[in-house]
Design goal:
307 residues, mainly alpha, 12 helices, 80% helix, 0% strand, globular, transmembrane helix, membrane, TM_pro_TauE-like, transmembrane, Probable membrane transporter protein
Length: 307
């Protein structure tokens, strides 16, 4: 979790991105335990990183974040109550593996473009809020409720592909939404009697002191060494855990199951590319208007860190 907490503070990938495969694939614990542990450990580590981000007054996409928080407030409990209990353990593993493998592959072939963005494309704040609302609602109810991670990746992807946001804006925003969703997930489970899987508390107790310091340290270190090296390493790990999952479950999945998983990764990548294409069209629509400013001024305009 020292590695996971660093990733949580320096990338759009929560600490559960490391904790989940270690618990589930290496220690062969239930996937539902990995999901609950992700919620629990991120509620400490990513909250600690969020406090550090806010204290440093780093720029954040506030309108989109506010919408995502409201959407997650509704979507995450609904997903925990009505979706996650019906997802088999194997499917939890596969959802995690597919989503993060596609996210890793996206960065392996688009990182230079993503890292080259400056500022953030300025849309109407109501539009940003509505986009965040739907992202929070849908990803909170599905990938976050099922795996314990993922809403940060969804919000981040919308920012860098659709809004052409600088990593200095997109990553802090993704950290804040994952911290919020993790605390919400833990609170929902305890307040409404769902509880955590057996073994979560013991693992959390061992890792919590590490992530409380490691996540904000990741925010601090990455500002000095740059985000590209860290993103490349974590992206490679995301692809590696997908291969590991297919190998570990090869007898259950069979050839047909492995092919379906590969098709699912391809479908996610196609979705990312569609989002990127849509973002290009939106920028073009703005720049084609006689009253619009130039492309460079649109893309480099950063909203104030605080409203």
């Amino acid at each position: 979790m020292a590695i996971g907490s660093y990733a949580a503070g320096s990338t759009p990938m929560g600490g559960g991105t490391v904790g989940f495969p270690v618990l589930v694939l290496l220690f062969e614990l239930p996937a539902s335990l990995g999901r609950d542990f992700s919620f629990a450990i991120q509620s400490i580590g990513m909250t600690s990183a969020s406090i550090f981000i806010l204290a440093r007054r780093q720029p954040v996409a506030w309108a989109l974040l506010h919408g995502a928080m409201l959407g997650a407030l509704v979507g995450t409990p609904l997903g925990i109550f009505f979706i996650a209990p019906h997802i088999p353990e194997l499917w939890i593993k596969l959802v995690f593996a597919v989503v993060w493998a596609s996210f890793g592959l996206l960065h392996l072939y688009r990182l230079d473009e993503i890292a080259g963005h400056s500022g953030m494309t300025e849309f109407d704040e109501n539009w940003d809020f509505r986009l965040g609302l739907w992202l929070g609602l849908l990803s909170g109810a599905t990938v976050a409720a099922v795996t314990g991670v993922g809403i940060d990746m969804v919000v981040y992807s919308a920012l860098v592909l659709l809004c052409r946001a600088d990593l200095k804006i997109a990553i802090p925003t993704s950290v804040l939404i994952m911290a919020y969703t993790s605390v919400l997930g833990v609170a929902t489970k305890f307040l409404f009697g769902h509880g955590m899987q057996a073994g979560v508390f013991e693992n959390w107790l061992a890792a919590a002191p590490v992530v409380a310091l490691g996540a904000p340290l990741g925010v601090f270190i990455v500002a000095r060494i740059g985000r590209k090296p860290t993103l490349l390493v974590v992206a490679a790990l995301c692809v590696g855990q997908f291969i590991w999952t297919l190998y570990a479950e090869r007898n259950v999945l069979g050839l047909s199951g492995m092919l379906i998983a590969l098709v699912a990764v391809a479908a996610c990548l196609a979705g990312f590319e569609k989002l990127r294409h849509w973002g290009g069209e939106l920028v073009g629509e703005q720049t084609s208007s006689p009253s619009s400013t130039s492309t460079s001024s649109i893309v480099s305009g950063v909203k104030e860190p605080y409203p």
